[in-house]
Amino acid sequence: MEEDFVIKTKALIARDFELEIGDEPLTEEELFKILADEVAYMIDHRLDFLLSLLYRLDVLEHKINAALGPWSTLPPNIALAQLIMERQKQRIITKSLYKPKESDDLEGLEF
Asked: pLDDT tens across 89-104, in order?
């Protein structure tokens, strides 16, 4: 289950952040490092895009403000990467819980 979870998280992060991660298996820590490095680059070079992406991912604004604020104990890229990983995991869980069930009512019908 954990490996499947990392694979799905990797796919979402690669898609959303337009990353070429490759097909090799990664640990969650390796994926986090890649994400944190990309977030650091985006903070320096594409901050507007990063903030837009965080909005589209539905990362809560007060959490973003806390991560970027002077009172944060973590570097901004690490704090934001944690929020992103947390949100992607929530998305995966939600999708698995509310996955549409196949109906027997439509079996045998042609469309």
From this structure: 898 888 888 877 665 5
